Amino acid sequence: MRVFMLTWEYPPRIIGGLARHAEGLSKALASLGHEVHVVTLDFPGAPYEEAHPPLYVHRVRVELPAPTFHTWVMLFNHFFEKRVGQLAKEYGPPDIIHVHDWLTVPAGVASKHLMRVPLVMTFHSTESSRSSSSSSPESALVGGLEWWGSYEAAKVIGVSEWMKSEVVSQFKVSPSKVVEIPNAVDIAKFERSVDVEATRMKWKVQPGERLITAVGRLTSQKGFDDLIRALAVVQKSIPDSRLLVMGDGYMRGELEALAKDQGVAARTTFAGFVSDDDLVDAMKSSDMVAVPSRFEPFGIIALEAMAAGAPLVVSRVGGLAEIVEDDVDGLEVDPNSPSSIAKATIRLLSDRALASQLVARAKERVKVYSWAHSAAKTLEVYEAAIGEARYE
Amino acid sequence: MSEFPKRILSSLMVMGAQSPDRAMSIDELAGKLGMDKSTVESGLKTLVDSGYAKLTEESGTRKVYLTRMGIITASSTYS
């Protein structure tokens, strides 16, 4: 099968979980012998063309300036369409066009009708949950594109049961059209040995300190402000606890100020963006990984922590609540609740036997989330889409 | 980060100033934003200090472009 995968992010352009998903799925499909062409945006230092047959990555340069983010998205979709046309001529038309989120819907829909090829759309998130149902014109545009994509697609994929139910209820899509295929994790990446002492020294963790790691964009959605407030409470019971925040974003200054205000600045390290190797090293060297999100359609970071063997505390929201079973393979906490995060953190850091039990069960559970499994389920969706595609 | 540097960050991305060879002059940026140069320069200082943008000079003209971290941060609101 020949698949054209349209995604605005693909490593090394990693904005969120979508890049990891596109990479993991594309590689797994290619490893099964399918020809996958990823059409994505360019990124400084990344080659415009990468060929690892049968996987090809085509990075597109947006040649025109745009006045706003949303017009820029429309523009880069035109450049995607142009590249899709070139690829169809060079390699032959695809059997499937697969778009991810609203950002590549216009190019996907145009390509579907121009080439009479079935469209599949994966939802990683929705505008209404991301923007707390904002009534801005931009949100209306994004919501409209999400509906359009779900309408034009022969099959729709949601990355969790929660995401699937959001798509069905928001866009009035028939439940039979939407399939849940969870994200996955490359477990092998987390199986290498790590120099824990050197890693902890690199991040200024003092001997004997209990390391809590949090990873993600520094945005309100991720709830790192709640985690910093929780750390102030945890410090009273466990004074040698330390927080390592990996990631960057608009809230960095605000979070740094909050850590100072809460009296935990000396015990909090903001690492900024880190490499994949640094991320694996840190997780494998941590006493706990916290995912305190206010909203999370899936939460790949939880799978990564499970694969790394780090005890996990997650918010009871969206996909996170599906991945983690409370008190079995991790601890769940209430979202927006520093006290709930603090209580679970103190419990976990104070009870090594509990931490070991959770990790052992998590390592078993995470095996279900393989890219090979996701690719096999996605191929079933492609086959169904080919049988059900309509072009009216 | 306050709204003003965020606006500059987003503008640099959508106007294509995403690598040294596509750096944009500060005069041009100020013109596109409809602001005076000194105001834009103060916003740029925040972005440069945060590691989101880099300044360069070409034939006596000061230019600016986003770093990889700047591109990711500018995009992160929408993912």
- What shape does the CA trace of chain A take? globular
Strand arrangement within the widest β-sheet of chain B reads 1-3-2
| Fraction of residues in β-strands of chain A | 15-25%
Q: Uncertain regions of chain A: pLDDT < 50 for 5+ in a row?
A: none
Total count of domains of chain B? 1
Query: What order do the helices and strands of chain B follow?
Result: HEHHEEH
Number of E-state strands of chain A: 14
Based on secondary structure, the structural category of chain B is: alpha+beta
CATH homology superfamily of the largest domain in chain A: Glycogen Phosphorylase B
The CATH topology assignment of chain B is Arc Repressor Mutant, subunit A
Q: Could you describe the 3D structure shown?
A:
The complex is a heterodimer of chains A (392) and B (79). Chain A is an alpha/beta fold. Helices cover 45% and strands 17% of the residues of chain A. The longest helix of chain A has 23 residues, at 69-91. Chain A is globular and about 65 Å long. Helix content of chain B is 52%, strand content 18%. Chain B has a three-stranded antiparallel sheet. In chain B, helix 1 (3-14) crosses helix 3 and helix 2 packs across helix 3 (37-49). The model of chain B has no long low-confidence stretch (mean pLDDT 92). Chain A binds chain B through residues 8-9, 12-16, 18, 42-45, 62-69, 71-72, 101, 103, 125, 217, 219, 248-254, 272-273, and chain B through 1, 6, 10, 13-16, 18-19, 32, 50-51, 67-69, 71-73, 75-79.
